[in-house]
Amino acid sequence: MTPASARAIALACMLFALPAAAQPPTMERLWPNEDGRSWSYDQHYEELGFGTDIVDNQVRVWFDGTTVAPTGIEAQYLRQELVGGSTAPARSATAALAAAIPDPLLRAVWVARPDLRARIEAAAAEAPCPQVHPPGAYALLLGGEFAWRRTADEVAAWRCNLANTRSWLWLVSDLTIGNTFTLQLIPDLASDVLLHGTIAAIEPASVPAGTFQDCVRVDYVIDYGTSSCTDPSGNPMGTSRSETRGYVRYAPDVGPVESLEQWFPVVESTDGCGGFPIGQPATLTTMQLSSLPVPARLASWGRLKAAYR
User: Fold this and answer.
1) Residue 8 lies in a domain
2) Phi, psi at 126, each rounded to 5°
3) 301 phi/psi in degrees, rounded to 5
4) I need a labelling partner for 289 at 20 to 30 A (CA). Which of 16, 19, 212, 249 fits?
5) Residues with Cβ within 8 Å of residue 123, at least 6 apart in sequence
């Protein structure tokens, strides 16, 4: 054997011994969706900047039959309920806002966009969508009460009161690291409230339910658009912009196992508009899978109800 041949064989052996680079699983594997399957999470909500309220509770998310969005879009009903712990912060102002605006997303927009508050309050009172809002729901990035639908291209939620409009976008089929996607949120209320997503990493996740390998982490940013500030006399002062930033980790053949999100009241400001330090988070919300997902029942409650209508 020549020295060159020996080196070639040694190099081949070294390459063969190297672990294969992590490859993203298919989108279909990241969120099993048979009817009746459920996930239980430990939810933690904490005020960081303007209050001291802390909420720790347990929520369950599960598929419960089917639903139809406007224009006949067939979807699954992804439900959510509080199964333990407290429902709302102790501060009366925060609790009152949660009662008046049950939808966590609209509640966040209400705080970030004073110019939209009257329209948000009207929407919450007259045509809520979803129509059910479980108490104690604080996570924006991971939760239920949606018309959930998976296609070959995406996993999204659809509005129940606005035709051909998605209310959320969790996953896309292109799971290449660095791939990005964007969705306009609440187009009936504003044109500049946007969801941005990035396929960020393939990594393990350790949660109370265990350690899961090869999770796809998707980073999300909710851009609430530009808000104008006025002085006590109503004169324009400047503008500011708010964001929610965070991620969800999806484990192959398990589903979403963890999320973390922070709300930043002011990420950009002119003339001191916004009244909060730039770039400082005001709230933190986490969701961690607390036990292994429960497989689908033979017949879900939604299907049983449909059978007896």
Assistant:
1) no
2) -100, -40
3) -60, -35
4) 19
5) 106, 188, 189
If one counts every other C-beta atom within 10 angstroms of the C-beta of residue 96, the result is: 11
pLDDT in tens, 123-142: 888 878 888 888 888 999 99
pTM assigned to the model: 0.87
The three-class DSSP label of residue 84 is: strand
Residue with tokens 């969005």: 69
Query: Helix-strand-coil percent breakdown of the chain, rounded to 5?
Result: 20, 45, 40
The string over 55-86, giving b where at least 16 C-beta atoms fall within 10 Å of a residue's C-beta and e elsewhere, is: bebbbbbbbbbbbebeeebebbbbbbbbeeee
Q: H-type helices in 127-205, by residue range?
A: none
Over residues 78-101, the pLDDT tens digits come to: 999 999 998 877 666 677 888 888
Tokens representing 275? 């009244």
Range of the domain at 281: 25-304
Into how many domains does the chain fold?
1
Q: Is residue 3 part of a domain?
A: no
